[in-house]
Amino acid sequence: MANAGNEIAFKKETVAKLLTRSFKEDRTKVSSDAVILVAEMLKVFVEEATRRAVKQANSEDCDTIDIEHFEKILPQLLLDF
Amino acid sequence: MKMDEDEAQKQRLKAAVHYTVGSLCQHIAADCEKQITKQTIAAIAETAFRQCDIFAKDLEAFARHAKRNTVTVDDVKLTARRTTALHNYIQQKSEELALNNQELKEKRKKNAAKRKSKDMEAEEENEVED
């Protein structure tokens, strides 16, 4: 899995907040390292989504990635994650 | 009202996600010499935001199953189980993290030792090791 722009990443603070607000129980916490890994997962998710949409656009001979391209690859993307 | 604060925080988080997603998408699109519409970026951002919610609930369930209150790296690895490539990538990242933590620990030990001993000899020894 190629890395797009190693400098671009989800902020630890953002990911931590995203996770904790989704937890069902108040006492559930998340370790610092786990937050970093989830940030990586999200980054891979976004990269995969984009690269698959690019492939789809390519297969349709389009220069612009349109929402339909994303929509076509979305089902498989969700299944793969 | 608590609901409004909640909603406000949600919007802030969505905006933060959207910002990073936008940067990532533009970077990849440029790499592939393609344009990407704002609408597409927004859709990817929304999907990522929702995917994070799914991750969070899974992670909580795994931690709970292991009778823990704190979500750990092992729980994250479990969420990456569906695709081998993804699983291997996360495994690799977790090993890098562990290595990093180890190096940080050793650096701190070294620094603490340096400060304690005002010996010139000890300092030279440390320089040679690097």
**Which class best fits the helix and strand makeup of chain B?**
mainly alpha
**N-to-C CA distance of chain A:** 14 Å
The value of Rg of chain B in angstroms is 22 Å
Number of helices of chain A: 3
Mean pLDDT of chain A: 93
Order of helices and strands of chain A: HEHEH
Enumerate how many helices of chain B there are, as a single number: 5
- Along the chain, the helix and strand elements of chain B come as HEHEHHH
Which class do the helix and strand fractions of chain A yield? mainly alpha
In terms of per-residue confidence, which ranges of chain B show pLDDT below 50 for 5 or more consecutive residues?
Answer: none
Biggest beta sheet attributes of chain A: none
Residues in β-strands, percent of chain B: under 5%
The biggest beta sheet of chain B, please?
A: none
Could you say which overall geometry of chain B the principal axes of the C-alpha atoms support? extended
Question: Largest interface, with Cβ-Cβ < 8 Å?
Answer: A-B, 55 and 56 residues
Q: Whole-number radius of gyration of chain A?
A: 16 Å
CA-to-CA gap between the ends of chain B? 57 Å
Query: How would you classify the quaternary structure?
Result: heterodimer
Molecular structure report:
The complex is a heterodimer of chains A (81) and B (130). Chain A is mostly helical. Chain A is built from three helices and two strands. In chain A, helix 2 packs across helix 3 (67-80). The longest helix of chain A is centred in the middle third of the chain and has 28 residues, at 32-59. Chain A is elongated and about 50 Å long. By secondary structure, chain B is mainly alpha-helical. Chains A and B meet through helix 1, strand 1, helix 2, strand 2 and helix 3 of A and helix 1, strand 1, helix 2, strand 2 and helix 3 of B.
